[in-house]
Structure formats: structure tokens, C-alpha cells
Specification:
Length: 386
């Protein structure tokens, strides 16, 4: 019974892109997998992968789902990007209270392992970080530029503090750890890449910003799957619980300029890579104005901001981290990937430049682009009194 229990995994947010990819990998290895999410998976799912519809904000729902589970991968979160970042109430409910519910359910129902999917942002708030490691302190909560990062930091603290909690059924202790991934990419990713491709196809992606020397990191979905499986294994007695109470940065281990990383995608879809480079402060100010406008009219028209302030920092300011701890303690060895599969995925679904765009259409986009830049630039000028 204990062996069966130890090989039963529940994944919160299991029907999302990464959660489902992790589920298929675990299932392929012979484990029993339970997907816990607010909506069923869009992909065709093997019959022996169980789906439980529920919300981590409802304790009773998650408590029922963890019965008989040996390990929880807590992936579910809200508010990572776009207009979601501006919904403070839901962000707080999912990321903070939802995590508390998951931890309580594990303790009450004898779940011995929990791996939490955190974020780089628990230590990053717009400051330059070069080859940082896990000894970096949490960014003070009041310095977080967005509510998502603040709540993810609170949630990670709760998860690591819960490590070593005695389980109510007397079967032992709850062992927990946290993984802090970079931006996720891979064929079929549904959060960031479609938004980027949409900007490219609409002619909005006509400039880059920040220093050309700025470096960030990304993680391929399969590398992140590998890291999670290794982290869960490292929580077992066979591995002396070596990951218990620990946090790990996870990426491909290849710092790169954010815009250069996406160059193969832009050019692979048949579009020219932008030659205009704008100062970071100008784009940050534009993002600030966008957020203020959303705050005013969001209740009536919940539009998608072009960029938020946090997204400007994450894409334009150098921050990358050492994988030494993950390699030494988890045995994590990231494989090399590129964007070829991503380009092919989008092309197979009808994306890519066509010859039907008229000269007039391109001219209108260029005029609108220049007008927007002039408007933002003029807003910096002082108001002269009469």
C-alpha cells in the first residue's frame, strides 16, 4: 500500500501547459497521476490519468483530491503576465490562500511530499543579478513591482516553512521544496508565445529596448519536467530527503538577451527583426501609463496591456542564476533546445507572414507606431507656465 501511495502524484494546475507535460512524463514512467484543475485538459488524455475538477481556493475540494496521494506538485497560480497581473484580489486568493489550503490538506491527509513551482521573481524586482544563487535573500515584500511576485514570495515562504510538519495520520513528516524556474518555452506553450506571435503578426513588434548586453534566462518545458521529477525524488528517504526545505533556481543555464532569444521565432515566421532600440526608461514609463489606464477603465473594458512594468524589468534587465545547487543536490542536467520546434508548431497552425498585407496597411502601422512614440516622448517634456 505504501509503495502504491508513494507512486501516486497529484498536480494542481495539472491541465495547464507545464502541468500536463509533467503528468504525461510521470504516467509514462508508470506512476498514477491525478490532475486537479478548474477546467478539464484540452488534450486527449489516457484513461488512467484521473482528472478532478476543483479550485485550490476551496479547501474541501483540494482535501478530497489528495486522499491516497503520496506527492503533490503544486503548480497552480494566477497573475503571471498581461492583464492577469492587475487582478490583485484573485492573485491573493489563488497564490496565498490556495497554497495554504494545499499545505493544510497535505498535513491533514498524510501526503509526505510537496514540490512547489515558484519563480525567479521571489528575489528579483528590477535590480541587476549576475550568476545569483540561492543564498540571495527574498526581495523585501514592499519592493515587488507587482502583486504576483509578492504573493509567490509569500507562498514559497509558507511552503518551505511547512517542511518537517508532522502529518496528522502519524505516518511521518511533510517534506517540501521549491523550484524557481525561468520563463518557460516549448512547442504548444499557451501563455507567452501566442501573445508574442500576435504582436509580431499585428506589426506591433517593431522595436527592442534595453541594453543589447542585458541577459536573462529561459527554461524548456522538458528541462523543467526533469527538474520537478528529480526534486520529488530527492524528497524521499532513499535520497536522504536532501531537497527538503530547499529552493532551487531552474533554467536552461544559458543566459541570453531576451530579444535575441526570440530572433529565430520572428525570422522563422518570415518577419524582419526590429532594428530600432529604445531606452528602457521610456518603455517602463509607457507600461506605467498603460497600467494606470487599465486601472481606470479595466472594470468596464478589461483590455490586454501591451506590457506591464514587471514584464519590462523581466525582459530588459539582466538577471540570471547559477544552476550549481540544482546540479549538485538534484542531479539536474539541462538539455540543449532551440526554437525550431516552436517555429514549426506555429507554422503548422497557419502562422507566418503572407504576401497579402498591402502597402497601405504597412504604411498605416508605421504612422501609428511613430505617432505613439512621439506622444510618449512629448509626455516627458515639462509643462511651461503662462
Amino acid at each position: 500500500m505504501e509503495n502504491v501511495r508513494s507512486e501516486t502524484f497529484l498536480i494542481t494546475g495539472g491541465c495547464g501547459y507545464f502541468g500536463y507535460r509533467l503528468a504525461r512524463s510521470l504516467h509514462k514512467g508508470g506512476a498514477r497521476v491525478v490532475l486537479f484543475d478548474t477546467a478539464p485538459p484540452k488534450q486527449e488524455t489516457p484513461e488512467d490519468i484521473q482528472f478532478v475538477q476543483g479550485d485550490i481556493c476551496d479547501y474541501a475540494q483540494i482535501a478530497r483530491a489528495v486522499v491516497g496521494v503520496g506527492c503533490v506538485f503544486h503548480i497552480a497560480s494566477y497573475g503571471m503576465s498581461g492583464r492577469e497581473q492587475l487582478n490583485r484580489h484573485l492573485i491573493e486568493a489563488v497564490n496565498v490562500q490556495g497554497t495554504q489550503n494545499v499545505l493544510k490538506a497535505c498535513v491533514e491527509h498524510g501526503v509526505s511530499r510537496l514540490v512547489y513551482t515558484s519563480t525567479f521573481n521571489v528575489v528579483f524586482g528590477g535590480q541587476v543579478i549576475e550568476n545569483g544563487d540561492e543564498s540571495l535573500p527574498y526581495l523585501p515584500l514592499h519592493l515587488h513591482p507587482d502583486h504576483y511576485s509578492r504573493t509567490k514570495s509569500l507562498a514559497e515562504m509558507s511552503v518551505l516553512k511547512a517542511n518537517g510538519t508532522t502529518l496528522k495520520d502519524g505516518s511521518g513528516l511533510l517534506r517540501t521544496c521549491a523550484l524557481r524556474p525561468a520563463g518557460i518555452y516549448g512547442p504548444g506553450e499557451q501563455r507567452h508565445l501566442p501573445r508574442i506571435v500576435g504582436y509580431i503578426e499585428k506589426g506591433i513588434f517593431r522595436f527592442v529596448y534595453g541594453e543589447a548586453s542585458s541577459l536573462v534566462e529561459f527554461v524548456h518545458v522538458d528541462n523543467l519536467v526533469s527538474a520537478h521529477k528529480l526534486a520529488a525524488e530527492a524528497l524521499t528517504s532513499q535520497k536522504q530527503h536532501c531537497s527538503a526545505g530547499q529552493a532551487y533556481f531552474i533554467s536552461d543555464g544559458r543566459p541570453v538577451n531576451n530579444f535575441e532569444f526570440f530572433r529565430p521565432l520572428v525570422e522563422g515566421l518570415g518577419y524582419p527583426f526590429p532594428k530600432v532600440r529604445l531606452p528602457l526608461c521610456l518603455i517602463y514609463f509607457f507600461a506605467f501609463l498603460t497600467e494606470m489606464i487599465h486601472h481606470l477603465i479595466g472594470p468596464f473594458y478589461n483590455f490586454q496591456p501591451l506590457l506591464t512594468r514587471t514584464e519590462v524589468y523581466k525582459t530588459g534587465v539582466t538577471h540570471y542564476f547559477s544552476m550549481a545547487k540544482a546540479k549538485a543536490e538534484l542531479g539536474y542536467e539541462p538539455q540543449e533546445y532551440n526554437l525550431d520546434e516552436v517555429v514549426q508548431w506555429f507554422r503548422c497552425r497557419g502562422h507566418g507572414k503572407t504576401s497579402c498585407r498591402s502597402f497601405l496597411g504597412r504604411l498605416i502601422l508605421d504612422i501609428l507606431f511613430v505617432a505613439a512614440l512621439v506622444t510618449v516622448a512629448l509626455s516627458f517634456l515639462p509643462v511651461v507656465g503662462s
